[in-house]
Amino acid sequence: MKVLQVAAEVFPLVKTGGLADVVGALPQALAAVGADVRLLLPGLPAILAGIETPSLVCELGPMFGAGRVRLLRGMLAPALPVYVVDAPYLYDRPGNPYLAADGAEWADNLQRFALLGWVAAHVAAGELDPGWQPDVLHAHDWHAALACAYVAARPVRSVATVFTVHNLAFHGLFSPTDFFLLGLPSRFMAPSALEFHGQFSFIKAGLKFASRITTVSPTYAQEIRTPELGSGLDGVIRARGNHVSGILNGVDPEVWSPASDAQIAAHFSAADLGGKAQCKAALQQALGLTVDAGAPLFTIVSRLTSQKGLDLVLDALPDLLHQGAQFAVQGSGDAVLEHAFRQAMAQHPGRVAVRLGYDENFAHQMIAGADAMLVPSRFEPCGLTQLYALRYGTVPVVRRVGGLADTVVDASDDHLRQDRATGFVFGPATADALGRAMQRAVVAFRQPTLWQQLMRRGMAQNFSWEPVAQQYLALYHEAVVTL
Questions:
Q1: How many CA atoms lie within 13 A of 236 on its CB side?
Q2: What is the pTM of this model?
Q3: Is residue 148 part of a domain?
């Protein structure tokens, strides 16, 4: 099975969230189970710098506003072939893949990601690199979704397409006056295709035209069929019926392992938890918190947005601190949330710590050193933070939604008796519900035998990529057979 994976970011070269982790791990996992996988990425500066032995595949000339476009091929360590769209006018700029340094979207994002989709479709057709043609084109999120429309626009469809929704909240919406820039037939600017409430939507290209659609957890695949979480596209998704499914993300054990992680203060395992206390003390010291083994330390590593339920945390924080707990957050995002967390730190020195911005290495220290990890999201397609937390014996406190519901087993009396519990799960998106879950966690923390039971059961969970890759392979075969 030959598979072309298409995305805008990849760990460790460019990362804004969980998408990069998935794109960094899934192709490698697919290759490990026998697939012939290649990855297609935009030529962002960090990607061009990180690809080994790049060589020219073809010159594409001027297109999508760029005077010169080339397709390169190289290797992403350890052994993944990668195509890179080299278009300096569109990609050689500071900021992240989608936003300028001031937080504003790049004005030419339409052209930047239309080019990515156009190249993907033509690689998939065997036209740009005749020596290799995939059976399946797998596009990730709205940035790559237009590839599915370009494939569908061809008179003869020669490749199956799979589209993965990592977060339906981001559509990739653009003005209808710019539709001509895509080079698609005019019939695609219709409600039955890309049109969306007077604009056109990149993500709708994947939802309408992909052979199969996946989300990154089974529960999220059901939630996006509803008006509450369908972001206005629930009708489109329901219409696809059983062509929409959920496959839970995995965790790369080479990157996330407390027994070998070079970023943390001490190594530990489920059999020997001793190093966990050293990691906690080192984290407290690094954050300026009072070094106190007896204070339960709750942490968050997240984008600071309303989606992540962080306003609920702020409302519930005084009660948590009153119970003798400590709290730390790392992330950036909404200016109001950033300011509110800074105020909380100023009001509670030694008890609350805030690190604005994202530091991948320190995220490992936050996860390894915490006692509990908060993920109180209003919606969460999969969530990787709680999976990393489980690996490190850090007990998750999560809302019963999306992938959080699929991966954390609540510490109810029954689940504790059955030794199935791995964390604390709450329902309503309210500060009261979150507060009660955190209080349960504090009470459990005061019982060392019970807390270690939760830690060890969480560390025993298997979220490896191998079974995930097998599920994707089965889906690819299904899509190819029904092409």
A1: 22
A2: 0.94
A3: yes
Q: Is residue 214 within 8 Å of residue 165, measured between CB atoms?
A: yes
Number of folded domains that form the chain: 2
Report the DSSP beta bridge partners of residue 407: none
Structure tokens at 224: 């996006």
Q: What is the pLDDT of residues 267-304, one digit of tens each?
A: 999 999 999 999 999 999 999 999 999 999 999 999 99
Domain span at 336 = 274-459
139: domain CATH number is 3.40.50.2000
Any domain includes 267: no
Contacts of 193 (CB under 8 A, 6+ apart): 149, 187, 204, 205, 208, 209
- Is 266 among the domain residues? no
Contact 403, 382 (CB under 8 A): yes
Strand order in the sheet with 297-301: 352-356, 326-331, 297-301, 372-375, 395-399, 424-426
Q: Are residues 309 and 413 in the same domain?
A: yes
- In a domain, residue 262? The reply is no
Closest listed residue to residue 194, CA positions, set 215, 174, 217: 174
- Tell me the one-letter amino acid at 190: A
Residues with Cβ within 8 Å of residue 365, at least 6 apart in sequence:
263, 264, 265, 279, 282, 283, 286
Non-local CB neighbours of 118 within 8 Å, separated by 6+ positions: 63, 64, 146, 147, 150, 183
Q: Which residues contact 102 (CB under 8 A, 6 or more apart)?
A: none
Phi/psi-derived region of residue 359, left when phi > 0, alpha when psi is between -120 and 50, beta in every other case: beta
Taking a C-beta distance cutoff of 8 angstroms, is the pair 160, 136 a contact?
yes
Q: Provide the 8-state DSSP code for 288.
A: T
Picking from 95-104, 182-191, 315-324, which range would have the lowest pLDDT averaged per residue?
95-104
User: In terms of domains, do 396 and 476 share one?
Assistant: no
The answer to whether 148 touches 209, Cβ cutoff 8 Å, is: yes
